[in-house]
Amino acid sequence: MMAALPSLCRFTTILGSCFSTPSPRSFKIRVRPHLPICLTTRKLSSSSPMSQPSSQPAGATKTESARAENDQEDMLVQYVVLRRDLIESWPLGSVVTQGCHASVCAIWSHKDDPHTLQYCSPETIDSMHKVTLEVKGETQILNLSEKLTAGGIAHKLWIEQPENIPTCLATKPYPKSIVSVFFKKLKLCK
């Protein structure tokens, strides 16, 4: 407790200087010395999605880094693929709705699958991983669906009715190491 006191005083001094001039928008911070203070930072790179964990801490060993990469490669993920031509011509909400339809249908159709059960379990439901990609148009989405079918990848090609338009597709949850090869050439949907 005594060793933490000097750093706590420094912390309080720094905070005090930040909030020394009262204003209508200032905040008062109460520091309780009997509670441990833990400040953490997380570095996000522009190439990694925000929902993904950042790189290993500075003190991580090579073994820990390799284990983290394997965990990242084997995480359960659901791929959702939208058509770029519809994104440019339909209202955004309509296109998002199509992706939601495909995603829910793919999960519900495989609700008893072990990967789906794990993906939707109470322990992991708040940390789902989805990758949303795009193809140019109808021909490309149909070709992708055929390729996934030939590769044994369970998915739902959503066909909007009554227009009978294939709008998007979604896979059931898979370990990333199994399914990512089918989507390597596609761009992230932006």
TrEMBL record:
Q: What EC identifiers does the entry list?
A: 3.1.1.29
Low complexity: which segments have biased composition? 45-57
Q: Which residues form a coiled coil?
A: none
Asked if the keyword Hydrolase belongs to this entry, the reply reads yes
- Keyword terms: Hydrolase
Q: Which domain of life is it from?
A: Eukaryota
Enumerate the PANTHER family for this protein.
PEPTIDYL-TRNA HYDROLASE PTRHD1-RELATED
- Kindly provide the name given to this protein in its UniProt entry: peptidyl-tRNA hydrolase
| Gene designation per UniProt | LOC18587634
